[in-house]
Amino acid sequence: MEILIISGLSGAGKSKAASFLEDMGFYIVDNMPAAMILKFAEFCTVSNGRYDRVALVYDVRTANSFAEFFEVLDKLKAMDCRCRMLFLEASPETIIKRYKETRRRHPLRDGADSLEEAVRQERALMQPVKDRADYVVDTSRLSTAQLRGELLHLFGTGGEKAGMTVNVTSFGFKYGLPMEADLVLDVRFLPNPYYIETLRPKTGLDRDVYEYVFKFQQTQDFMKRLEDLLTFVLPLYAEEGKTSLTIAVGCTGGHHRSVAVTHALTEFIHQQGYPVTENHRDMARGV
Known about the structure:
- Helix content is about 45%, strand content about 20%.
- It is α/β, with parallel strands linked by helices.
- The chain has 2 domains: about 1-155, P-loop containing nucleotide triphosphate hydrolases (Rossmann fold, 3-Layer(aba) Sandwich), CATH 3.40.50; about 160-280, no CATH class.
- It has a 5-stranded parallel sheet with strand order 2-3-1-4-5, with helices on both faces. It has a 4-stranded parallel sheet with strand order 7-8-6-9, with helices on one face.
- The termini are far apart.
- The model has no long low-confidence stretch (mean pLDDT about 90).
């Protein structure tokens, strides 16, 4: 079992970090008091794998006693689980700007003369927690996508491929472009099975149509170049923070060439380790 403690300064991005970690498969619990963390961890260990990856948000709002929190942290590290702590911080200027933009109230504002003073107090108060952290990330100059990329680098698993799901869909140009498409591929230059009478009523999922489309050298050359392109761009899309990518493959009617290429492309992306779905928008329409 893996337990990640998310802590840090108010306004440094703990909520965003928790959301990204949830997308990566962590079970998130926010504002959990130190006294409850150990009991919850013990519950997770007997959950038959349901809570294998847990992230607990701990901040100044629940910090009654750091001594108690550190004692719990030591016990967690002694348990049969992997326990780490992430501390998020940002410069005072950045935190003040974020609070002004969101118009939210800083948790220590009531006991301070100003927002700046509240930020300063929290920084000093949370220093012992920062000192115990396994990872410290300064979000002052990180975009949302960059923060997600940093978390994926630190806590992602090899099989996640940065948490991005790819959807490959075939379509017919005569019915219009799919509105959700991020990348559009036009395969109308490939030889068309429509003009083969025995193949016309079939689709690109039928073996004889599929073999017809891929027996031509131009199809094989196109797929090789397309695979090289996707090998290059998919990791970059994931690194930028994209969680879902839709690739639309179009031919004239969406029955033959686009369906065959979509099917082959889906298999290739699956082999690269990305979660991928295959759809054929217009395949059921009349030829």
